[in-house]
Amino acid sequence: MILLSLKDAMKIYQYSFMKHPKFGLDLHRDNVDIDGVAILEKDVNLQKKTALKFDFYALLLCLDGELIRHLNHYTYTITKHTLQLIPPNTIYSFENITETTEIYILLFSESYIKAYQEHHISPTIQQLFDYHHNNLSPVHLSTSMYTRILNLYMDINTELHEKQEGHHLLIRLIILKLLMLLKREKMAQKTAIVFTSRAQHITHCYLELIEKHFLEYKKVSDYAQLLHISSKHLGETIKETLGKNALSCIHHRLFKEALYLLEYTNLSIAAIASMLGFQTPSEFSRFFKSYHTMTPKAFRLGLFH
């Protein structure tokens, strides 16, 4: 699985951030120090961006504006004073609703947190991370909680700029505090998914399995077997809950991965075709064109014009 590192992501998005920001790192400076953690201010005016995946955590605090955020097969509407954590290896994209959206972005790697505990994570902290991996929902913060969270972002920003003794230790502790406060808010707001029917539960499990196995399994029957139901039952269930056929869900996930690999890696089109399980580049090209009306080569060339 090819994931963007923290440094790679900063290079890609460098020119999406303003110079000399009042808050966060200035990505336009030479030799920006990104040692497993970064904090940024983003005035989002892009309307849409190709989905990407990274090997670090992103904790996003929306100060103003509104957008739609896609994480794996979930879609969330993000509004003012919303907090959300995006774990590593999550396919992520967004679309603006308002013209601009102001967001504070806290990025940190798992290894950065592990360094606090001599390169391993205690069971309690691991359970905290596992909780957030299994519950991607954003939370809307009350005025008092928003102020509390905002102040913690400010504290991290101060520590990164002043670099006083023990600043990384303090930043790690603040990050853990933020994650615990986010968990409390998720539990209080009951953001965990509740299924009102067996059909909804089957659909959720199907989409989760696609996310885990789309490079390995390409047939609906493969997933039906994993779910211990018939292909016919699975197909009828997906049609009932999502209004589309079950195979299209697999193909849609493959297409998102293709877009990501074409835009964010230097892999050849033949290598991408092979990685996605196509027998030939021509077969991959036909598949891609059915979704995007252009070939993979034309799409990649268009990125640089």
Weakly predicted, low-confidence segments? none
Q: How many structural domains are formed by the residues?
A: 2
**Helix-strand pattern, N to C?**
HEEEEEEEHHEHHHHHHHHH
Indicate the radius of gyration in whole angstroms: 21 Å
Tell me the CATH architecture of the largest domain. Answer: Sandwich
Largest sheet strand order:
1-7-2-5-8
Proportion of residues in extended strands: 15-25%
Quickly count the helices.
12
How far is the first residue's CA from the last residue's CA? Answer: 28 Å
The CATH superfamily of the largest domain is: Regulatory protein AraC
- Strand-pairing-aware structural class: alpha+beta
User: What is the molecular shape?
Assistant: globular
Overall mean confidence score, pLDDT: 90
Task: Give the CATH level 1 class of the largest domain.
Answer: Mainly Beta
> How many extended strands?
8
Largest sheet: 5 strands, antiparallel
Query: Portion of residues in helices?
Result: 40-55%
Instruction: Classify the fold: give the CATH topology of the largest domain.
Output: Jelly Rolls
